[in-house]
Amino acid sequence: MKIQKCRRGQIRILEAFFAALLIFSALFLIPAPSTMDNEHSDNLHTIGINALLQLDSDGSLSRLIENGDWNALRNLLWQVLPNGIWFNLTILDSEGNQLNDIIISNGGQVSDAVVSVKYVCAASDSTYSIYILHLQLARAD
């Protein structure tokens, strides 16, 4: 009889082992959520902010906006941003009116994953005009 008592506990141990095996196998078979999209969007946001800061560091950004030189601004963005990055820039005044009358972009949208960067630029002249820049970026697939 003593032998039978020891065997009754073995089935419970096997059941617990298989339950744990089932749980762990389910954890390994379910794919982890991808953080690649989040990393790309953080990277694009950083690229956009750095590009606008670089253009604004010597005051040339506000000067180009005041003069309405949209083609020169497009060319500068083209030079500052890395290859394979699509951009679209919209410039608003402090009241929310769009200032650029032409599209400041390097082509059509190349991806659905678009990152938007908002940047406030102040003119360095005596009027201290405020401009709000909306830069949209996407990585070419």
What is the percent of helical residues?
A: 40-55%
Q: What is the residue-averaged pLDDT?
A: 84
Please trace the helix and strand order, writing H or E for each element: HHHHEEEE
What is the 3D shape?
elongated
Flag low-confidence runs.
Answer: none
Major β-sheet profile: 4 strands, antiparallel
Strand order of the main beta sheet, please? 2-1-4-3
| Structural class determined from secondary elements | alpha+beta
Task: Give me the oligomer status.
Answer: single chain
Number of strands: 4
Distance between the termini: 72 Å
- Percentage beta strand: 15-25%
Gyration radius over CA: 28 Å
Count of all domains: 2
Number of helical stretches of at least 4 residues: 4
Task: Provide keyphrases for this structure.
141 residues; alpha+beta; 4-stranded antiparallel sheet; 4 strands; 21% strand
Short summary:
The protein has 141 residues and is α+β, with helices and mostly antiparallel strands.
What can you see in these coordinates?
- A 4-stranded antiparallel sheet has the order 2-1-4-3.
- The chain is elongated.
- The protein folds into 2 domains: 30 residues; 104 residues.
- A hairpin with a 7-residue loop joins strand 3 and strand 4.
- It contains 4 helices and 4 strands, in the order ααααββββ.
- The mean pLDDT is 84.
- With 141 residues, it is an alpha+beta fold.
Helix and strand topology:
Elements: H1 2-29, H2 36-56, H3 60-67, H4 70-80, E1 85-93, E2 104-105, E3 115-122, E4 130-139
Antiparallel strand pairs: 1-2, 1-4, 3-4
